[in-house]
Design brief:
Helix 5 packs antiparallel against helix 6. The protein is built from 7 helices and no strands. 61% of the residues lie in helices and 0% in strands. About 4% of the residues have low confidence. The protein is flat. It has a domain of 78 residues. It has 144 residues and is mainly alpha-helical. Pfam families: DUF3223 (PF11523). InterPro entries: DCL-like.
Length: 144
């Protein structure tokens, strides 16, 4: 009788021992030094900028000899920004057409979507003359 009660209570006993083991471990293991409480504050913290913001992280990692001041570098960065400004609407259009529920696989695009794709996407294709040729018959969505 006592043996069956002990067997039934074994899982609870094991659970209580694990709980006491965790509690004893917390008491016996020395606590680690907290890095944020004993370290000196950084200049960004003194200015009131929290260190977790992306701007603060980029300020900390910024190189001292930055090439941002170089006129040629600045010109290329401006041109890169212009290119990205041109490309972004085109990529959004392509993603919208491909991932939307408007078209099923193999379905022909509407006339206005075909026109936009021909003007914006196929114009930048390396073989655009071969793709467009003397005119487009139809453009379809095809997913692999």
């Amino acid at each position: 009788m006592a043996a069956s009660a002990l067997i039934r209570g074994a899982p609870l006993l094991r659970l209580r021992l694990q709980h006491h083991h965790r509690f004893a471990t917390v008491l016996l293991v020395p606590l680690r030094r907290s890095w944020c409480s004993t370290a000196e504050s950084t200049p960004l913290e003194e200015d009131g900028v929290p260190l977790s913001t992306p701007a603060a992280l980029s300020l900390r990692k910024a190189p001292k000899n930055s090439s941002w001041d170089d006129q040629n570098y600045r010109q290329w960065k401006d041109e890169e920004a212009d290119i990205w400004r041109d490309i972004e609407p085109i990529t959004h259009l392509a993603k919208e057409i491909i991932h939307s529920d408007r078209y099923m696989d193999g379905e022909q695009l509407t006339d206005e979507d075909e026109k936009v794709v021909a003007e914006r996407l196929l114009a930048y294709h390396p073989n655009s003359d071969d793709k467009i040729g003397c005119g487009l018959d139809s453009i379809m969505v095809l997913t692999w």
